[in-house]
Each structure stands twice: as structure tokens, then as C-alpha cells.
């Protein structure tokens, strides 16, 4: 019996990505590649419109659901964009949370940098550690406005006690 060729062969853009990765693509082509998964027929036009609206890949990936809807993306495509944006943060979070002992400030900084870089409001994050410097949890404890955030020491202490934390790492964007 002969095997049949797949009904949906790869596009030239997909082939180029498989050959050379993201380095061979500009921001618009990367967005087009992502949109081809949910809007195969109009991915090029949508990618062009998204670049005009968001001015780059990072801005596109960190756009709100409402902004993506206004750009003409379907709910399934918005889901794909949100998933792609939040997946690396989750991987980094698990990497630090599942580590038995906190040893590298660099790993913590990588996680914090990625998780906080695209925030549009002020956020105060707390990483809770036990007495052996094992990471218990990482929580956005306070949120503010565009340029200010109220920090309440009493709530920090109550939260630390609730987590049975003996050490805390604070981060603020």
C-alpha cells in the first residue's frame, strides 16, 4: 500500500522556521506563523494589521484580550497567543518553585524579569522561602496603578505567617 502525502503541506514560512528557527524571521513573519495555526487563510493580512497596531512581537504577545479582539483575532487565536505568552513564565516559575533549595539568584532574577517585564500596572511580588531556603510560593501580593502602589507591611507579615515562610524575596516593577 502506498502512503499518501499529508493533505496540509507546510508553507514556505513554516519550512524556513523548521530549518532556521526564529532567527530567520522578522516580527511580522513570526506573528504570521503563529496566526497560521488558527487563521491559515488570512494570517498574512492579520499579521500585518497586528504589526501596525502593536509595533512588534513582544507588544503583540503581551496585548490584552480586548486589544487582540479589536485586532480581529478569533477566541481560539487569542487563546493561542495568551498560551504562548504565559507558557515560558510558567516554565520558569516551576523551575524555581520545584527546586529543592534556592541556590541561584540568577534563576530567581530570570523568573522575575520575565514575569514582570510586560506588566502595565505596578505589582509587588513576594517569593516565600522556608528556613532551608526552599521556595514555598511566589505571589503577586499587591497591585497598583500605572505609577503607584500601596504597600501594607501588616499584610506582608500576615501572608508570610500563612505561608510558614522564614525568608522573603520582594520584587517590584
Automatic annotation (TrEMBL):
Q: Which InterPro entries match?
A: MPN, RadC_JAB, UPF0758
In terms of PROSITE patterns, this protein maps to: MPN
Q: Biological process GO terms, please?
A: proteolysis
List the lineage, top down.
Answer: unclassified sequences, metagenomes, ecological metagenomes
Q: Which UniProt keywords apply?
A: Hydrolase, Metal-binding, Metalloprotease, Protease, Zinc
Gene3D superfamilies reported for this sequence? Cytidine Deaminase, domain 2
- Please state what the protein is called: MPN domain-containing protein
- Record's Pfam families? RadC (PF04002)
Q: Which GO terms describe its molecular function?
A: metal ion binding; metallopeptidase activity
Q: Which residues form the MPN domain?
A: 101-173
Q: Does the keyword Zinc apply?
A: yes
Species this chain originates from? marine sediment metagenome
